[in-house]
Amino acid sequence: MQLHQLPLRARARIRAIDWQALDPAEARRLRELGFDQGVEVEALHRAGWFGGDPIAFRVGRMTVAMRRALAGAVAVEIVE
């Protein structure tokens, strides 16, 4: 499942990030925000009525908003 498909309030663990699909600046930003394999994330909020872009995620104690296209490069698995 891709990060943008994660249901609201669901927690997941990052399985992989397709770094090659990202612009270098976006990849650097994700790394600086703590996105890496094994990190847990939670979907908090989707903005707007159509498309739900951007999406807010919790990573550790931070809330991070990102576009669906960027979240599509992050593969996750739901944590029970």
From TrEMBL:
Pfam families xrefs: FeoA
Top-level taxon of origin: Bacteria
Keyword Iron annotated: yes
Gene Ontology MF term list: transition metal ion binding
Keywords: Iron
SMART domains: FeoA (SM00899)
Record SUPFAM superfamilies: C-terminal domain of transcriptional repressors
InterPro entries with a match to the protein in the record: Fe-transptr_FeoA-like (IPR007167), FeoA_core_dom (IPR038157), Transcriptional_repressor_C (IPR008988)
Location of the Ferrous iron transporter FeoA-like domain: 1-78
Record has Iron as a keyword: yes
The protein's name: Ferrous iron transport protein A
Native source organism of the sequence: Sphingomonas changnyeongensis
